[in-house]
Design goal:
Helix content is 29%, strand content 18%. It has 301 residues and is α+β, with helices and mostly antiparallel strands. It is globular, with a radius of gyration of 21 Å. The relative contact order is 0.16.
């Protein structure tokens, strides 16, 4: 399913449209939004990441690919990358998809990727398999692919098996089902579920396929990329507060991921007190239950 979209959601009508895109993502397992970021952002991000694309060695192992380059910590290497990670349209759709299963979403990964000529097709897989929880009832992850070059069937564009998120979690396609190789341009963005079967295609061209993959997961999961090592407090305190929260410098209610009983965002302050008071961080429904319990105790007394 491919959808034309020229700007982030801001008006009432656009916010209503978010639900439509999220429904298409859930129905098809993927959705493509066209030209959602201006060329200047793409050029700036490529320029800031160029040295890392050049200096990063090829991967080791057949899954990552011996003719593929990958590097993480993208937000440390590029200030512009934050515009992609915090894209309001992408976040709005992701929150609809993952929101029923968590209190907050989190950044799971940001990774630069290059697929070089002669790279074979990657093994078809579902990214949700990194977690061993039950599959089929919960969506754990939304992947977001930002192309920095044209993605074509010839240069190894992402291959998707539509509606494969509705198959048995272990089901693989038969030999006569090659999936669909998506054609994307810089400025487009591909969203697909962690339960959707996909792979990087074979690069039979003479050109490098370059892009950035960003993913978001349920806030109570262990993230693929260890965000606190990628962005320790001395790095994260320079980020926009909302970006720091997305990385994990906040609590997932109730009280999950705390530091000394408080939000880890306290570590982003200039002066962190040596002793902190543990402070409740409850969901509204839990707070209501606690209040009712206290009220009943008072009445009984």
């Amino acid at each position: 399913m491919q959808v034309a979209l020229s700007q982030p959601f801001s008006s009432y009508e656009q916010r209503k449209t978010v639900a439509t895109f999220a429904a298409q993502l859930l129905a098809q397992g993927y959705v493509v939004l066209r030209q959602v970021v201006p060329p200047a952002l793409i050029y700036n991000c490529i320029e800031e990441l160029e040295d890392h694309f050049q200096q990063t060695p090829f991967c080791e192992g057949v899954f990552y690919g011996g003719l593929t380059k990958r590097f993480g910590c993208v937000l440390r290497h590029s200030d512009t990358a934050a515009h992609f990670v915090q894209h309001p349209s992408v976040l709005a759709i992701t929150e609809i998809v993952l929101g029923p299963y968590c209190d907050t979403i989190q950044l799971n990964l940001s990774q630069g990727i290059e697929i070089h000529p002669d790279a074979p097709a990657q093994f078809p897989h579902r990214d949700q398999d990194m977690w061993s929880g039950p599959k089929g009832d919960v969506e754990y992850l939304v992947n977001v692919m930002w192309p920095f070059t044209d993605y074509t069937p010839e240069n190894g564009s992402t291959v998707i098996w539509p509606k494969s998120h509705l198959w048995s979690p272990d089901a693989m396609p038969d030999a006569c089902d090659p999936g669909i190789s998506l054609s994307l341009e810089p400025g487009d963005v591909l969203l697909f579920l962690g339960s959707t079967l996909h792979n990087g295609g074979a690069n039979t061209s003479q050109a490098v396929r370059r892009g950035m993959i960003v993913s978001y997961s349920l806030g109570w999961l262990k993230s693929f990329e260890n965000q606190f090592l990628a962005y320790p407090p001395e790095v994260a305190r320079n980020f926009d507060p909302k970006l720091a929260e997305l990385i994990g410098y906040r609590q997932h209610r109730p009280n999950l991921g705390n530091y000394e009983g408080q939000s880890p965002a306290v570590l982003l302050c200039d002066d962190v007190p040596p002793h902190l008071a543990a402070t409740d961080a409850l969901r509204p429904d839990q707070q209501a239950m606690v209040d009712a319990f206290i009220s009943n105790l008072s009445q009984a007394a």
